[in-house]
Amino acid sequence: MNKGVCGYSFYNRREKIGVTDEKKVEYKRLKKQSEMQNLFRNGKRIYSDSLTLLYLPAKETSFAVSVGKKHGKSVQRNRIKRLVREAFRLNYKEILGKYSIVLLPKVKDEYSFFVFDKDVKEMIRRKKL
């Protein structure tokens, strides 16, 4: 078991405070460089104000976020990735087919979860993925 500083195991502490594992995802992460290159070359694109979505039909739903260095230092890029992943996690069940998907945030001054969430919903509905 993973003992914390106070001697409590992390898992027992989670049970005591009532934390649940709601984040059971049914899609896999897109990790291979060859899959990403295939998506960038052959994928169809959907544009919104804050995101670009690339997609291709696949055997199972897979997902990635790509944030370039123009978005700032690693702290800002990682925050953007977390926001976009969460927006996708909350909306991926609306996707009817099985696709490989990459989300590309556009360079802006400020980023908001609500904007990403709205844009992901809109893009999924608009193209009926």
Overall CATH architecture: 2-Layer Sandwich
The largest beta-sheet arranges its strands as 1-4-5-3-2
Average of the residue pLDDT scores: 82
Beta-strand percentage range: 15-25%
What is the terminal-to-terminal distance?
A: 42 Å
Number of domains: 1
Strand tally = 5
Tell me the CATH topology.
Answer: Ribosomal Protein S5, domain 2
Please identify the top-level CATH class.
Alpha Beta
Which residues sit in consecutive blocks of at least 5 with pLDDT less than 50? 12-20
Secondary structure: helix percent: 25-40%
The radius of gyration computed from the alpha-carbon positions, rounded to a whole number of angstroms, is: 17 Å
Quickly count the helices. 4
Q: Structural class, from secondary structure content?
A: alpha/beta
For the largest beta-sheet, the strand count, sense and barrel status come to: 5 strands, mixed
Could you spell the SSE succession in H and E letters? HEHEEEHEH
Shape: globular
How would you describe this structure in keywords?
globular; five-stranded mixed beta sheet; Ribosomal Protein S5, domain 2; 5 strands; alpha/beta; 129 residues
Describe this structure in words.
This protein has 129 residues and is α/β, with parallel strands linked by helices. The protein has one domain: Ribosomal Protein S5, domain 2, CATH 3.30.230.10. It has helices at residues 10-17, 33-42, 74-91, 113-127, and strands at 28-29, 44-47, 51-57, 62-65, 99-105. The chain has a 5-stranded mixed sheet, sandwiched between helices. Helix 3 (74-91) crosses helix 4. The radius of gyration is 17 Å and the shape is globular. 20% of the residues are buried. The model is unreliable at 12-20 (pLDDT under 50).
